Amino acid sequence: MIVRHLGYTDFTVIMECFLSAFENYFVKMPTDYDFYRERWNASGVRYDMSYGMFDSDKLVGFIIHAVDERQGYLTAYNSGTGVLPEYRGQRIVKSIYDYAMLELIKSGVAKCQLEVITENVKAIKSYEGIGFEIYKHYRCFKGEISSNSKDDFELKKVLHHEMNWDAFSNQNVYSWDNQKESLIKGNYDYYEVHAKNILQSYFIMNSKSGYIAQFEILEDSVSQWQNLFSAIYSINSNIRINNVDDRLVRKVEALELEGLQNSVNQYEMKLYV
Question: What CATH code would you report for 141-263?
Answer without folding.
Answer: 3.40.630
